[in-house]
Every structure is written in C-alpha cells, then in structure tokens.
Amino acid sequence: MNKKVLVLMPDGVSLRNFAYTSFYKLGIEKDFDIVFWNATPFNLQEIGYNEIKIENPKPRPITDLLKSARIQIELKLYSKRDKDSVYQSYIFPLSFKSLKATAKSLFIKWYTKRYASESGLEKIRHRIIASERKSEYYKNCLEVLKKEKPDFVFCTSQRSVIAIAPLAAAQELKIPTASFIFSWDNLPKATTVVTTDYYFVWSEHMKRELLHYQKYVSSEQVLITGTPQFENHFTDELLETKDTFFTKHRLNLTREYICFSGDDVTTSQTDQLYLRDVAKAVRKLNKDGHNMGVIFRRCPVDFSDRYDEVIETYNDVIVPIAPAWEKMGEMWNTILPTKADLKLQTNIIAHSVAVVNLGSSMVFDYAAHKKPCAFINYNYLNSSQQPEKGVYVYNFVHFRSMPAREAVVWFSDPETIAEDLLAMLKAPAKTVIEAKKWFEVINLHPPQEASKRIWNTIIELI
C-alpha cells in the first residue's frame, strides 16, 4: 500500500518550491500518495494535483497576538545571548493608531514583558499550541486527518500561524510531522512559528543556525535536504532560445542586458533611485560605444508606481518585464507565483549577463548560471536624497554567511557604477567563483537534487 503524505501548503509563496518544481512528480515516482493540504487561494487541481482545500482557515485571534509576542521575546533573547543589537532591528514597531490596534499592542507588550526569559519563552510556545487546540479550525483539522489517515504531514513553510493547528492536530494523532525552513534569512528573524517533529533545512550552516536559535530542537530533529528553490536553473525544458525570448519581450538582439531585480518597499524605500543610477550608468557606457540595456524585474508584491518616472525617462535602456504573479486578494500574501513566472525568471537569468540588486538571494540564482551579481551599497535615506555610503541591510545576520566580500561586486557610489559594471563584465570569473562558494555554504549541492533528497528523507522517517 502506498504511503500517504499530506503536504501542508499554508501560504502561496510555497507554491514555487513544491508545486512548480519536480517535487510532486518525484514523489509520485516513489509511489507516494500525495495530497496537498492547501490553505492558499490557488486551485492545485487545475495543474493536476490532488488537494484538500482548507477553507477560510481561522487561527484564534489570541494565537496571532501570542505569536507576535513570542517573536519579540525571541529576538530580545537572541540579542542578549549573542550580545548583538542587530536582532533589535528585526522587531516591527507596534501600532497605536486606533483603539483596536492599541489594545493588541498593549497585549503584546504585556506578554513580551511577562515572559521575557528562556523559561517564559518555553511557556508561551506551549500556550500558542494550547490556544489553537481550542479552535474550531483545530477540530476541523482533526477530522480531516482522521479521515485521510496520512503517514506523514510535511509543512512547506515554518512561518505561518495558519500551520499551527493542522500540525498540532497531527501530533495529537501521533502522525509524524516536518516543516521546511522557507528562506535563507528566516532563522535569525525568529520566524520559526510552528513546532514539528522534524525540520528540513537547506545546509549544514542552516542546521547550526536552527540549533543556535531554537534551544528546544535537538540535532537529530534537523535534517539537511537543500531547497527546491534553485532547481529550475538546471531544467533545460524551461529554457527558450535567445531569439524567442528577445522577440517576445521586445529586447534588442544586438544588446547585452543586465537585470535590475527590484526589492520590496520595506527593504528598499528608494529602490527607484537605484534603478535610475544603474540606467544612467548604462546610458553613459552606451555613449562610449558599448551596447547595453537593463531588464527591470520588479519585486512581485510591489504594485506601486514609484518606478514609472524612471522607466519613462530612461526608456532607451530600460525594458520592464513584469513578474507573472497573480493577485488573488488585497493582502501581500495573496499575491501568488505562477508556474509561468518560474519559466520567466529562469529565462531572464539565462539571457542576461549579470544582476544588480540590494542584497537579495538572486546572487545564488545567477551563481547557478555562472554569472556575477552586484550589490548596491549606498543609500538615499537622508532628507536631501543625496547618496551616503553603506546600507543597513548588510548588517543582517544572513549576510555573515558570505565567505568573502568578493562573492559580489559592490556598487558603493552612483558615480562609479559605469566603471564598476564594466570591470565586472570584463572579468567576472573571480566574483562567480566566490559566489559559488557562498552558494555552497547556503544550500546543499548539487542543488538540482533537493526534491529527491526531501523524498528520500521522508522515506527514512516513515
């Protein structure tokens, strides 16, 4: 009899890793009965998958507040443990804009103060699970699990409060559970919201992080699989010819394009000025006899008009190619990736010569294609909008995993971008070599075998 695995999909961003890669196909080939337990608005039956919809999942309001308190407590404890103030910068300020917001914020502040210790953190973690066990949502999850009788529940992200009740219900029924650590920067930011029997991580580096931050987790519970996030770069059937791609997106076949990968407005408030500076540098190079362009791929959840003026002013060099995501609601987490976007992003990388951005994991996507990345390292955060050296995001913990600063080219002054860009393209080898070393620290290699390793690990656990 085939073993049944419920793949719990609490948020849409997990679609990219587990619905659009080889993950499902490989599981079927290994004779698993796979059912997606789907809390996203996306209909997975449309792409041929078995699914059970989680209709209107409703964690208890108090659970969400306890989660917020837990995150603040953890970050303050990390700061104290490591004697490092960087963790304080991950704490979102509380809102007091309305009576309701004030009540919530006062609740969070009280719990944060009341449980501000290692033992208090343990108590609040158990309170969160106990809270969800009182919900109708939890009872519904129990019924689903009793009916489906899975051998394993695999949660595709550790970050979502929606996942707490289904996983707690599985543990109540003695069904083994695992969660996947979704992103390379998640663990220092205290986003391990769920508690599971096992944790699947990208690398040995991430395993060390998880054990460092979550003291209740033992080494035997943490299993290194890599992430399916980069598998698309090793899938030839996704690739279009240069002629096809350039014609489809009205690119100039005689030009070399760099990709400017936009960031969200929280991380990069003045991202449009960085795009302007890069476009200005490319225009300058073109006047000197080069033939270059900029493919602008905005952050998929950024629908603002902040780039419009720059795109219009520099339309001789900038070609915007919008991400193929679907907006299925008003909240950012209902803007969902599509399979078409996986192909689109893969081809942008394949048919551009480098990427420029503010500290994103696109450095690894380009390293997979043996192409260099430049990180912008100046800011416009002053009132005069004059460039100042340095960007606060590079103080974040996940950048400390970089083995050498040469893993990227640093654009530290808008006036020197043209020459820095030219130097990067003339001699990319050293940057690519160091970026690949960083990629190997962050994600278990070979990266294209992550889905296979995940299924092999589940087989061993079952």
TrEMBL record:
SUPFAM superfamilies associated with the record: UDP-Glycosyltransferase/glycogen phosphorylase (SSF53756)
Record-given protein name: Monogalactosyldiacylglycerol (MGDG) synthase
Organism from which the protein derives: Ulvibacter litoralis
